[in-house]
Write a structure and sequence with these properties.
alpha+beta
C-alpha cells in the first residue's frame, strides 16, 4: 500500500515528465524563448525548478545536522544577503548551462529530492524560507511550482498541456492559502470559512469548507488553479462567487510564497 507521500511524489514525477517532454529537443532558439515572466526564458524557468529542487533536498537533509546542513546554511546566508533577489539569481546562474547539462542536472535533482523527502523521519518538518514544512507539504508546493512554471513554458512555445486531475494538489493549496493571501496584502482575512466547489478536468467535483457557508466559489478547477498561481486574470475565468468576501478573495488569491505578485492583465 502506497503512502500519501508516495502518491504525491508520483504526481510530481508525472508533471515533471510532461514538462521534460515539452522542452527536450529544443534548439538554442527554443531555450532562449521569452516566457510571460519578465526576463525569464524557457531555460530560466527550468533552471528555477532545478534550483528549487536542489534547495529543497538540502533542506530535507539538514535535519539533525545531516549531510545537507552545510549546503542549507549557505543557502540561508545567500537569502539573508539578498532576500528579494537570491531566487532569481540562482535561476539565472543555472540557466547558463547548456541544455544537455541543464536537463541532466534537473533529472538528478528530481531523483535526489524524492529520496531526501522519503528519508525525513516521520513526524519531523524540514526548514524552509517560511514556516517549517512536512515532506508532503513540500511535495505539494513543488507540484504547484512545477505545474505553474510549465504553463509559462508552454505559453512561450505556443503549446497547450493536457489538463489532468493532478491539479487537485494546486487547488488544495489555493484553498489552504486563503488567509496567507490576505496577509501579504496587509489585510485581515474573514473569520468564516468559504465553501469551494470545483469541477475537475475529469468531471469530478472537489469541495472544501462547510456546505452552508454564506461565501462560496464555484466553477472549473483549472480556472481556479490558473488564478491562484496568477497565470490568468480574474476576469478571464468562469469562476462564480456568492458574497463580497469570496469575490474579493479571488482578486488577491495566491498559492505561492513570497510577496503579492503582479498577476496577469485581462485578455
Amino acid at each position: 500500500m502506497t503512502s500519501l507521500l508516495d502518491d504525491l511524489l508520483d504526481d510530481l514525477r508525472a508533471e515533471g515528465d510532461q514538462l521534460l517532454a515539452a522542452v527536450s529537443g529544443l534548439d538554442a532558439v527554443g531555450w532562449a524563448t521569452a516566457t510571460p515572466a519578465a526576463g525569464w526564458t524557457v531555460a530560466t524557468q527550468v533552471a528555477h525548478l532545478l534550483w528549487t529542487d536542489e534547495t529543497a533536498a538540502a533542506a530535507a537533509r539538514s535535519l539533525d545536522g545531516g549531510p545537507g546542513k552545510a549546503a542549507w546554511d549557505d543557502i540561508v546566508l545567500q537569502a539573508m544577503a539578498d532576500p528579494s533577489g537570491f531566487v532569481d539569481t540562482g535561476a539565472h546562474e543555472v540557466a547558463r548551462l547548456s541544455s544537455t547539462a541543464l536537463l541532466a542536472r534537473w533529472g538528478a535533482a528530481r531523483d535526489d529530492l524524492a529520496a531526501a523527502l522519503r528519508a525525513v523521519p516521520a513526524g519531523q518538518k524540514m526548514p524552509w524560507f517560511g514556516p517549517p514544512m512536512s515532506p508532503t507539504s513540500m511535495v505539494t508546493a513543488r507540484f504547484m511550482e512545477t505545474w505553474a512554471h510549465a504553463l509559462d513554458v508552454h505559453e512561450a512555445l505556443h503549446t497547450v498541456p493536457e489538463p489532468t486531475d493532478r491539479i487537485k494538489h494546486v487547488a488544495h493549496l489555493g484553498v489552504r492559502t486563503r488567509d496567507f493571501a490576505y496577509s501579504v496584502h496587509g489585510l485581515t482575512p474573514p473569520a468564516e470559512e468559504f465553501r469551494i466547489e470545483l469541477t475537475a478536468p475529469s468531471g469530478a467535483v472537489w469541495a472544501w469548507g462547510p456546505e452552508d457557508a454564506a461565501q462560496t466559489v464555484s466553477g472549473p478547477a483549472y480556472d481556479f488553479c490558473l488564478l491562484v498561481t496568477q497565470r490568468v486574470h480574474r476576469d478571464d475565468t468562469a469562476l462564480e462567487t456568492t458574497g463580497d468576501d469570496a469575490a474579493h478573495w479571488l482578486t488577491i488569491a495566491q498559492a505561492f510564497a513570497g510577496p503579492a505578485g503582479e498577476g496577469r492583465t485581462p485578455r
